[in-house]
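Sequence only, no structure available. Ideas?
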Amino acid sequence: MAKPQDCEVEQAEAHLQEATAEVRHAVAELEHAEHDLEKAEAELEEAERHKPRIVEVTVDRQRKRVEAGVYVVSVFKALVGVAADRELDILEDGVFKPLDDNAKIAIHGCEVFVSHARTGGSS
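Reply:
I predicted one. Tokens follow.
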């Protein structure tokens, strides 16, 4: 006949095995969650790298917000609201320099532009 102490030991061992299994399961879930977190952080970093950087430029004394990058001047003019029939100059080193509509311009932010009626041409 089994002693009451033997039954208590068997029950304790069963509880211990059950608790050990629960701990193993929790550790596995934690490792899975850590993996998911690392994956989500990597995806977020990738998204941040490809997120457009918005900068401010000044056009005809008005601040405009545009995406930093390289533009064809005619496309940039349309983006910032300068009519196609106007010339666009950029202020560089205190001097206004005309921009050809077909040229490319790199926008980094803080550039200053002035538009004006086209000059010259044939009569």
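DSSP finds two helices and seven strands in the chain.
Hope that gets you unstuck.
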